[in-house]
Design a protein that fits this description.
Blueprint (H helix, E strand, L loop, with lengths): L2 H18 L3 E4 L15 E5 L2 E9 L4 E5 H14 L2 E8 L3 E5 L5 E2 L3 E5 H7 L20
Parallel strand pairs: 3-5
Antiparallel strand pairs: 1-2, 2-3, 4-8, 5-6, 7-8
Length: about 140
């Protein structure tokens, strides 16, 4: 699986997860691609008047790094939109963790976070959920 496909699949999984948690969701296709693109988050979710901008990372390494440029671009977008920035890290076989920019350590090259800290400070999806959606699978008469 190519790096792009892995990321795109994780983004779609995140959208489904957020939707089932009761959020209205939208994926920003092509986010982060190319030098001439407008910086946007990977996914936007709304719930009861609250706007969340999600940057999705599917990373199996023990450390997650986000460049200063990417983090600053995301923060600018969030300021324009009045959204809360959330970094969503899909850790293989351990699920999603949701962090804020402030949870990351700032170093010379990037914002960094290790798995251990992600599990300490990161939230689970239930943090965002008001009421999980249920679907009626019976056919309408």
């Amino acid at each position: 699986m190519t790096h792009y496909n892995k990321g795109a699949n994780a983004e779609r999984e995140l959208l489904h997860t957020l939707y089932l948690a009761g959020m209205a969701v939208c994926r920003a296709a092509g986010s982060g691609k190319g030098k001439d693109t407008i910086p946007t988050p990977d996914a936007i979710a709304l719930m009861q008047g609250k706007i969340y901008a999600f940057e999705c990372k599917a990373w199996k390494a023990d450390n997650l790094h986000i460049s200063h440029t990417q983090m600053n671009d995301l923060e600018k977008w969030c300021n324009l939109a009045g959204a809360e920035l959330v970094i969503a890290w899909k850790i293989p076989r351990q699920g999603w963790r949701f962090m804020k920019k402030e949870d990351f350590h700032v170093n010379e090259k990037s914002y960094a976070l290790n798995k251990e800290k992600a599990f300490q400070v990161g939230k689970k999806i239930e943090h965002f959920s008001v009421k999980p959606l249920t679907f009626n699978t019976e056919k309408q008469a």
